[in-house]
Amino acid sequence: MIISDKGEDDMIKIPRGTQDILPEDSVKWRYIENKLDELMEIYNYKEIRTPIFESTELFARGVGDSTDVVQKEMYTFQDKGDRSLTLRPEGTAAVVRSYIEHKMQGQPNQPVKLYYNGPMFRYERKQKGRYRQFNQFGVEAIGAENPSIDAEVLAMVMHIYQSFGLKHLKLVINSIGDSESRKEYNEALVEHFEPVIDTFCSDCQSRLHTNPMRILDCKVDRDKEAIKNAPRITDYLNDDSKAYFEQVKQHLDDLNIPYVEDPNLVRGLDYYTHTAFEVMMDNPNYDGAITTLCGGGRYNGLLQLLDGPSETGIGFALSIERLLLALEEEDIELDIESKFDLFIVTMGEEADRYAVKLLNELRKNGVKADKDYLNRKIKGQMKQADRLNAKYTIVIGDQELENNSIDIKHMASGESEKVQLDQLVDYFKE
Question: pTM of this prediction?
């Protein structure tokens, strides 16, 4: 026998940047996830589940070597076969890998519309609403380059948040053009930042020649003058990119979806082209650090980057933690009141033995029911029924067993009704 003299301080605690979702909160999560599933059905998107870890190369190539995610935030490890694996930091690269591997471009239903929901992992600084294991829900529509599907995805993302009752929302959009426009724009950025780059952080300095657009996205240097007066991508869009963006905006106008254009919105991952967007919390009184609820965009080069066919896609990802934060901020209560049918109060051993059998029968017939397991007095058992918010209670003792008769008490009204004990299951079925 090992006796531990460990104090409170030595107790094993949850890893930093993670959270336990306890029963009182997990019902909210389940409610949100069920609602998202229903919405996806309406929009004709199908669920895909990919592994929690993937080959490290997938993210190095797919997310981009120059990104913070790949450089600083990934959980990477060697497995026993000396393969480099990474816990997924985001969802798109894995979905696209699966699309390529399973040759989904050959499916009769096109474009391929997919959604996912699950944990992602990033080694990030801890702050409210930001975790190292966080839950991401995301959508990818692959196989159509058409402004109307961009509009569908934007309309869907607004529909998702509004369906939970959120009001203070702002949709921010930009076009980051096609690869031809980007090339010209990148050159202009290099020219603009080169003279002052030594006043910027080391990340920006290393990105100047690899991915200068990311400088606009820098958290450290965002207030610098050079960022505020940097060239704007919208001035470098070629005719095709311009026309594409105009059509997306036209659709949004037709759908009466308000939006704000932000020429500095570039999104943090390398694979985006054309439409980029974010949904923000738009409440002037909100003082939390996290205002972005979700982000996404079109990616036209990602499939080729991963040796796939020349198909294009558009998608977004939203954090369920941040959605809960926004609901809290707007004082929105989710409709998650739990309904419980019956609590069985027992007196004596015989009654308890009978209750075990009865409970089993009731549950098999879909009745939500429970009983006492702690040999509490009647009063204590009734309190438990209250806590469970049970609609009905019954008390079984020797007399009830003998007479095969039971009083069913309706807790809200306090009224009782006599029923034969062996007919109780049928009573609830009716």
Answer: 0.89
